[in-house]
Amino acid sequence: MTTTATAAPRATTAPAPLLEVEHLTMRFGGLTAVNDLSFTAAKGEITAIIGPNGAGKTTVFNCLTGFYRPTAGALTLHTAAGARKLERMDGFRIARAGVARTFQNIRLFPSLSVLENLLVAQHNLLMRASAFSIAGLFGLPSYRKVETEALELAVDWLRRVELMDHADRLASELPYGHQRRLEIARAMCTRPAVLCLDEPAAGLNPRESLELNDLLLSIRDRDGVGLLLIEHDMSVVMTISDHVVVLDYGRKISDGLPEAVRNDPAVIRAYLGEEEDDELPPEVAADLGISPEAQ
Ligand SMILES: Nc1ncnc2c1ncn2[C@@H]1O[C@H](COP(=O)(O)OP(=O)(O)OP(=O)(O)O)[C@@H](O)[C@H]1O
């Protein structure tokens, strides 16, 4: 894959909201993992959620995708179909409403082929087209049309993530970086309005990381899909994000453009910790643009 990723921010007028998170709280017993969190992810933008380990990032995704039912708060998805309240829906309905996701630990169907993984992702659409009947599966022209479209979409994504030559291999046989790309392609085959990516750069080498940047920017720009990104790799976050939300101990401590967030003293403190003589790891300091004297 060629790599051309450059700094992202481009919006001049305020973009329309895609996902509104209002006063989201998630408690596990006595632990408040997410505490009164509010932010808006806009249409056609990449919104990164960052923060130290245990800050509550994955818990936000688990609330957004129906893995957890929030203790309190509202989650509203705005699509062409109207505004949908997600906070009381199960994962299946949330997926149908247009929210797709990838995981920190890749979750593919390992014993299915690469192509089959992309077709299974479209299972719901195919079953609806069959009117949930055997007769539909074999007889309805409308089913055959949807089936052809599903195959075309799968092939289109195989090309975009450069896995066409691997279409018939088992997903489990792919190298790690290829599996990451397949997982993103599979999520995109569900035709989402918003794609939630949990540490997509984890385990990738620098070249693969640059390729990932290009892929995510193309999903934003070509597919018009809004992205929510949890990522520890600050070079990815600072290069492609339009908007960054920072969590610490479940609370939002900063929210804005990447340049503003990386210069925010609250963010620097969160990454530094409480100890005065702590120092940021050099790679984090470099990506946040902090000179050694400033620490
Ligand atoms: N199902 C659960 N039951 C109890 N505690 C949980 C559960 N899920 C998450 N937590 C706790 O909630 C807090 C936030 O966890 P979460 O995984 O959301 O953080 P994170 O910011 O994604 O961390 P990391 O960057 O390390 O992945 C942690 O203290 C975690 O132990």
Automatic annotation (TrEMBL):
Superkingdom of this entry's organism? Answer: Bacteria
Gene3D superfamilies on file: P-loop containing nucleotide triphosphate hydrolases
Q: Which UniProt keywords apply?
A: Amino-acid transport, ATP-binding, Nucleotide-binding, Transport
For this protein, the record's Pfam families field holds: ABC_tran, BCA_ABC_TP_C
Where is the segment annotated Disordered?
Answer: 275-295
Q: Which SUPFAM superfamilies does the UniProt record give?
A: P-loop containing nucleoside triphosphate hydrolases
Q: Which GO terms describe its biological process?
A: D-alanine transmembrane transport; L-alanine transport; L-isoleucine import across plasma membrane; L-valine import across plasma membrane
Similarity annotation: Belongs to the ABC transporter superfamily.
Q: What is this protein called?
A: ABC transporter component
Q: Give the source species.
A: Tistrella mobilis (strain KA081020-065)
Q: What is the lineage of its organism?
A: Bacteria, Pseudomonadati, Pseudomonadota, Alphaproteobacteria, Geminicoccales
